[in-house]
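In this supplementary section we document a worked example of the pipeline. Step one takes a protein sequence of length 158 as its only input; no multiple sequence alignment statistics are reported here. Step two produces a three-dimensional model, which step three serialises into structure tokens for compact storage. The input and output of this example are shown verbatim.
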Amino acid sequence: MADADAGAHYARPGWFTQHVFNPLVAILTRAGVSVWGSREGRVRGRTSGEWRTTPVNLLTLDTVQYLVAPRGETQWVRNLRVAGDGELRVGRRTEAFRATEIADADKIPILRAYLKRWKAEVGVFFDGVSATSDDADVARIAPKHPVFRIEPVGAEHR
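The serialised model returned by step three reads:
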């Protein structure tokens, strides 16, 4: 697993993403429209304890669910590492989850599946690596992209 140190990889969102794309996806997701698997991820802040939200793409691979951080060591990643759990929401449906971070060596098939599904949206953050890149290239970028296995807990809230 990657260390969350000061030299960690982070790709800051551009103006369009921050002020147009992410808010639009968040509005649609809150309204119950999932855009290609989008969810509103909710995680407690690591210092404030208050809920923090961000749009995320939920990947299902062989019946297992994952969250991938295409931008790297984001605030939601740092918060999730501390909290260990959170919620995923689409419309009124909220699902609590427990998260386990995946080791870099185990990320290759997950990152490959993520890129296959969302490369058009997030490919720019993966240093030219695509779903068809060889394992060595995917392994090279794995430390820059935290991945969490998501396991639902408890009953759904409505």
